[in-house]
Amino acid sequence: MRLQKYMAECGVASRRASEQLIAEGRVQVNGEVVSLGVKIDPEVDTVLFDGNPVGLDAKVYVVLNKPRGVITTATDTHDRKTVLDCLEGVEARVYPVGRLDMDVSGMLLLTNDGELANRLSHPRYEVDKVYSAWVKGLVMPDVVKQLEEGVELEDGLTAPAKVSIVKNQSNSTLIHLVIHEGKKHIVKRMCKAVGHPISSLRRVSMGNLSVSNLQPGEWRYLEADEVERLYGMVGLDV
């Protein structure tokens, strides 16, 4: 098994991120720093990341209703509250799947299942992410059509989205967007590009997961059937 695949399955990081960790010289196999391309036998070889043993822990899946003002990262150098600080009682080392900006709230999945996390984040598998956004100004049907057909950004044309107007209020509009891209600040950039900057943003759901029954800051473990459905969405066998 390739080392980066093993690290992903152990929940260290995604395959791509694990490749970077290996390239940085932070991974050892049987006491020696290794380079990309190494294959291991998990039954025989000992793997260390930053001096800590890497192993196949039991898979853990947690969904969090992330509050605003919380950082989507495992640690923060400025001592700000992170999503892991919200998971009191979760003993396993889990990592967020994708990220929500500090000022964005809503549904966030955290897991140590690196392969699932990698696929859920990859646009190839087209996992729907649903957002609810208050934007400035009154959104007209032509703007909805533009968002649905794709918006030209500095890093290319966005993939087609599904957009609906929920309601207008004063000089603002509540819209729902369904996308499957994971580019940085993608929803904010899309709305700004069509002349309607976002005032507040919340992720409602991802795939079959939502936080409709969770208050901000609350979390729960996924049920077995929820995990099975996520696996099916991205072509993995349970």
Describe this structure in words.
The chain is an alpha+beta fold and 238 residues long. The chain has three domains: 3-53, Structural Genomics Hypothetical 15.5 Kd Protein In mrcA-pckA Intergenic Region, Chain A (Roll); 61-123 and 208-233, Alpha-Beta Plaits (2-Layer Sandwich); 128-206, Alpha-Beta Plaits, CATH 3.30.70.1560. The protein is built from six helices and 15 strands. The chain has helices at 3-9, 15-23, 114-121, 141-149, 186-193, 224-233, and strands at 27-29, 32-33, 47-49, 52-53, 61-66, 95-96, 104-111, 129-136, 152-153, 156-157, 162-169, 172-179, 198-206, 209-210, 219-221. The strands form three sheets. Strands 5, 6, 7, 8, 11, 12, 13, 14 and 15 form a nine-stranded mixed sheet that branches. A four-stranded antiparallel sheet has the order 2-1-3-4. α1 (3-9) packs across α2 (15-23) and α1 (3-9) crosses α3. 32% of the residues are buried.
Quick overview of this protein structure:
21% of the residues lie in helices and 29% in strands. By secondary structure, it is an alpha+beta fold. The strands form 3 sheets. Strands 5, 6, 7, 8, 11, 12, 13, 14 and 15 form a 9-stranded mixed β-sheet that branches.
Radius of gyration: 20 Å
Structural class: alpha+beta
Helix content: 10-25%
Topology order in helix (H) and strand (E) letters: HHEEEEEEEHEHEEEEHEEEH
| Count of individual domains | 3
Shape: elongated
Q: Averaged pLDDT, please?
A: 92
What fold name stands as the CATH topology of the largest domain?
Alpha-Beta Plaits
Distance between the termini: 19 Å
The portion of residues forming beta strands comes to 25-35%
User: Sheet bearing the most strands, described?
Assistant: 9 strands, mixed
pLDDT < 50 runs, ≥5 residues: none
Number of helices: 6
